[in-house]
Each structure stands twice: as C-alpha cells, then as structure tokens.
Amino acid sequence: MLVGLFEAVGRKVIEFLEFWGKWFIISLKALFLAFRRPFRFKRYIYYLATIGTDSLPVIAITSFFTGGVIALETYVAFHRFNAEYMIGGVVAISMARELAPVLSALLVTARAGSAMAAEIGTMKVTEQIDALEMMAVNPIKYLITPRVYTTVIAVTVLTLISDIVGYIGGYIISIYLFDVNKTLYMRYTEILAEMDDVYHGLIKAAIFGFLIATISCLYGYSTRGGAKGVGESTTRAVVTSSIAILIFDYLITYVMRLFDL
C-alpha cells in the first residue's frame, strides 16, 4: 500500500514537471518566433480585438460593481471614525494593486483562455495543425505567438480601464449614496494613492496575460482523444490558468514587497 502511494505521488510529480517543462519550451518558442518572417500583423489585430475589445463590457461591469462594493464595505468601518473621505484612497489602491489585475485576468481566462484551448484543441484533433506543418507553416508561430503577445497587451489595457471604472463605481456610491464630501474625497485619493500602485498592478497584469495565453494554448496544442479531449483540455486550461494567476499574484506581491517596489 505504501509503495502504491509513493508511485502515485511520483507519477504526479513527474507529470507536474513534464507540464511545466513543455510550458517553458513552448513559451520561449512563442516569444522568439514573433521576430521571424512572415509577421502577419492582421492576426495580431484580430486577436487583440477578440481577446481585448470583446472582453471589455464584462470587465467594465464587474469592475464598476467591485468598486461600489469596496465603498459600501469600507464606509461601515470609516463612518465610526468620521473618516468617510478616505474611502476614495482605499478604492483606488485596492483596485490598482490587486482587484483590477486579478479580476481582469480571471475574466479573460474564462472568456478568452477557454476559447484558445478549445479552438487549438479542435484544430489538433481534426489534424488541421498537421496540415499547417505540411504547408511549411510553423503552427506555434501561426497559432500561439499572436495570442501570447496580444493577450499580454489586452490584459494590461483592460486592467487600466478596470482601475478607472472601479474608482468611478466607488465614487458614485460614496458621493451620491453616502453624501461624502467631494473635495475631501478627491484630495485624500491624491494623498493616499500613488502611480506606483498603478504600475504594480500593470506588471501583474502583463504576467497574468502571458500565463493565460501560454497555458491555454499549451493545453489546446496537447489535446488528444477527439471531442472529449477538447472539453477536457478546455477545462484544464481554465482551472490551471486561474490557479497560476492566484499563485503568481502572491509571488509577485511578495517579491515587490521584498524589494520595496
């Protein structure tokens, strides 16, 4: 029984290392193949629209109400000390450093990451990727490289928009629901929040975008077993990407705190 347990654990460790080894290799190829001809700029524009622009409505709605919820929750505590005017700073810092990049990344994972895995997985099981190779087209450069670069850009820009919309949500709740003084609200936002908070979140967003694209594309590219395999790859891509986002969120925050960034 103990031997079987060690075998199961060893198998999982090997699978874990094998996955991240494949991820590292395909990520490097996707990054460097972007600088080889042909460049196919139209594909970059297409994916930027489908990944970024199409995700904007859901991220804007989510961010608006997230900012509103932060204002609602912090008002209860700050009202006890007559410090309601500090809500703006709390909303701005919370959205910029943590909530905007994480929420944007998770929503893009659910919406675009799953689509990447499903589309590439379908092409894999229907042998369309083999057909690309027969035509001397590098499938990683053609299918994965544009998605990686555009996802990084899209998640970064969406995070910046999420910061703004979330702050507006907090502003509306604070000013028009709780009648907080506008001047003090804005002034203490300027005092408490800094541009470093925004940069912190944007760095996270870029890394999250890279993780989403590479993990989702890897699962799609490794699909086996027909339609069932496509479904399994899509599910694993979303779950793995979401877990990676949360783990790297902690690691990035820890490193930045360690170096006082």
UniProtKB/TrEMBL annotation:
Pfam families for the chain: MlaE
Molecular function GO terms recorded: phospholipid transporter activity
Classification via NCBIfam families: MlaE family lipid ABC transporter permease subunit
Compartments reported by the entry: Membrane
Lineage of the organism: Bacteria, Pseudomonadati, Aquificota, Aquificia, Desulfurobacteriales
Naturally occurring in which organism (per UniProt): Phorcysia thermohydrogeniphila
Transmembrane segment boundaries: 20-37, 44-65, 85-108, 148-178, 198-221, 233-256
Record's bilayer topology term: Multi-pass membrane protein
InterPro entries per record: ABC_MlaE_roteobac, Permease_MalE
Family affiliation: Belongs to the MlaE permease family.
PANTHER family on file: ABC TRANSPORTER PERMEASE PROTEIN-RELATED, PROTEIN TRIGALACTOSYLDIACYLGLYCEROL 1, CHLOROPLASTIC
Alphabetically ordered keywords of this record: Membrane, Transmembrane, Transmembrane helix, Transport
One GO location term (cellular component): ATP-binding cassette (ABC) transporter complex
Protein name: Phospholipid/cholesterol/gamma-HCH transport system permease protein
